[in-house]
Amino acid sequence: MNKPAWYYLVLLILAGEAVFILPFVLPRIFRPTVLDVFEMTNLDYNLGVAIYGIIAMVSYPFGGPLADRFPPRKLIAVALWLTALGGILYARYPDLDTLKVLYGYWGFTTIFLFWAPMIKATRVWGGDTSQGKAFGLLDGGRGLTGALFGVLGVFVFAAFLSSDVQEVTLAERQNAFAYVIYVASAIIVFIGILVWLFMKSNVDETKILVDRITAKELKQVLKLPSVWLLMVIILCSYVGYKITDVISQYANEVMLYDQVKSAQVGTFLQFLRPTTGILVGLLVDRFRITFWLLSSLVFCVVGGIFFATGVIGPSTTVLFFMSVVIIGVGVYAARALYFGVMRKGRIPLVLTGTAVGLISLVGYTPDIFAGPAYGYFLDTYPGEQGHQYVFWMLAGFSAMGAIAAFIYFKLYNKN
């Protein structure tokens, strides 16, 4: 089967991160600022985000089969435009109830319309021999896109502040961050236009699409051990990814950095993602992809323990950044690899969307519980103690994921 052109993957990369900029990337990079301008606690804001997870859980099993019936280009472009539309409301700093509705809306636009088409399109581009390359470059490229959005966001935010960040009023910070949201929304719309016009595949669609999904296909997918193991692996890996949201807040509250410097730490973390993803993509197809998936989760355990034991503080800057790198490499390598092992696990290409929907139904449940959980720890135990509990959570889930990855490695290593 001929692979689509290189620009197909480039557009997929741009779209793959742009769709998540508003609901997740900006709040990750600007964590202290977001809590400030929305005038909410960690728990309150994350309760809003949790609605995203609930809608996503409903969307995964229905959006998956949709990706097996319709071309990815149209689904992805519409998802981008609808997601950007939500930025208009987001920039008005809605109250908690309205924020819940907005995140529920984003759960529909980014998951029902977008998620499975993105994964399937990536698997198509990877063909029979380049699955690691395809998914590594996808996640690495998405990370680079997110990091560039972060740099642009920090620049726009700083440019619209009239004086030092510590001295400006709440209204001035709200005004500056609103410009960040509007700029991001405009770029997302533009990427959607590019996808609609140019992300066209030369692959025979009869080989990757089906007329409809029946109970027979669902049973076929659910019989595969790889599907069930990937549910556990992704769930545990995704808890780690969600917890990276608090690293910029750790820099602010424990390392005592100001809001601009803590946002720069968040942006630094974003740059680890493309570095890791691209290196994984270029190297992993030459080795055992299932072994590297296992290794990435072990990295998460080690990095989580460094933070959880309380050895990192204002006087240990080198150890802080070293631990950020360890967690970043582990989390982003896992993200780059866990869908890349689908072919190794004997999941049929034509049923990729259905399999992704079912796997994601369990694997991405942290969208529901992870935010409220770490929000509770951070609000109930202010300062370093709360952060330690959060990173013990990361280490524990990563350890469970490593066990599932080891089983996957043993089952499919020789295939």
Continuous helix count? 17
Helix content: over 70%
CATH superfamily: MFS general substrate transporter like domains
Q: Mind summarizing the main beta sheet?
A: none
Q: How far is the N terminus from the C terminus?
A: 21 Å
Question: What is the CATH-assigned architecture?
Answer: Up-down Bundle
Relative strand content: under 5%
How would you describe this protein?
- This protein is mostly helical and 415 residues long.
- It has helices at residues 6-18, 21-29, 31-38, 42-67, 72-90, 96-126, 131-159, 170-198, 215-222, 225-243, 247-253, 259-283, 289-308, 317-337, 352-363, 366-380, 384-412.
- The chain has a single domain, classed as Growth Hormone, Chain: A (Up-down Bundle).
- The mean pLDDT is 86.
- Helices cover 77% and strands 0% of the residues.
- Helix 11 runs antiparallel to helix 12.
- The chain is built from 17 helices and no strands.
- The protein starts with 5 loop residues before the first helix and ends with a helix.
